[in-house]
Amino acid sequence: MLEIKNLTKKYGSKIALSNVALSIPRGQIVGLFGENGAGKTTLMKCILGFLAHEGEISLDGQPITAKNIAKISFATCEHSFFPNLDAKAHMGFYREHFPKFSEKRFRALMSFFDLPFSKNIKSFSTGQKNQFEVICALSQGADYILMDEPFAGNDIFNREDFYKVLLGILEEHETVILSTHLIEEVSSFIGRAVLIRKGEIIGDVDTLELEEQGLSLMDYIKNTYNYRADRVSRALDELGGGEE
Amino acid sequence: MKKQRSKINWERHTPPGFDYETERSLFIAALIISVLWSLSFFARFFDAVIYLGEWHNAPYFYELLGNAFFCFPIAIALMLSSIAINYAHYHSGSKSIYLMRRLPNRWERHRRCIEIPLASASITFLTAIIIVFIYYLIYMFWINKHGYHPYANQLKLLLENWRVM
User: Does the domain at residues A2-82+142-156+171-243 carry the CATH identifier 3.40.50.300?
Assistant: First the structure.
């Protein structure tokens, strides 16, 4: 269980996260949604201990320290691999530092995405880099896999492939927290949606419950965000009127 | 086979993917230049030997050293400043700092940044000390050979001249 209590993060006077409370049990695939700057990345970085913060974050009842940090992996659109190393060297590095690293999964995913083992990662295309980033996160042997917009720059076919692979390889104890703007694409396989706005959790829903209510995830998000569907047409009307 | 093992070891002591060969070449060059520059001691020393008859007293050791060790502190500063370059490497081309900060061994990222520069700076410092000692032995041998009485406080004067004390 990943448990977050009263998490507050401030950048100077700006509040990035305000009293965030969240409990994520093992085995869930959680979608983390919110506009740009809502606090999704900040939340993940606080969980990973990259940012100083107020409040408590615990993993299976223990504070996150060097002892249990290997239980969390992280795939980010900023990329955390070593660009001057090839995949083989990465494999060696992960094997050395993460005791539960799954070489079998690593090789299987490399093969699935048809990525070369002996080329430096910096020579990969953006899509391949994203795939490699995700492969590392999935192979680390972590119980909690954090993904921060991992598909930015990937085409739809790549993403579709990835979703299928993700669903196929995840084991019961593995938890994925996926931050993305691709709501409709991920809505079919996430089990829970957490909405964040201006640093606050404004929605937290089980996708099965939504189904039972006959609501789509997109509808739920729009409702929670008080999205005004007519605002575009009104703006266009106003612009059109101005020109006349 | 031996060469390859040595190469792998060097990689393990620098940030992953870092161009350690350039850094290594720079460090070795800095050390060699420092040692070569220190040989300027002999220019002053042989001058002293030649003009000894005209001198009332033998020159102080620090006078003979002059700026022979000028390059050593520069080399050491260069080596130590590469620690910052090593840390910056984790932010270059990607954010591999995120991976390094997630390692169960929290010292790994620091170790890989500090180890080689610190070891190189220490070796350079030790080399300087050994060379000073050798030059001092040569100087003392020469002093004794010509029947001069050695000056007291040579080390203190030397350090004062180097602004250490």
Answer: yes
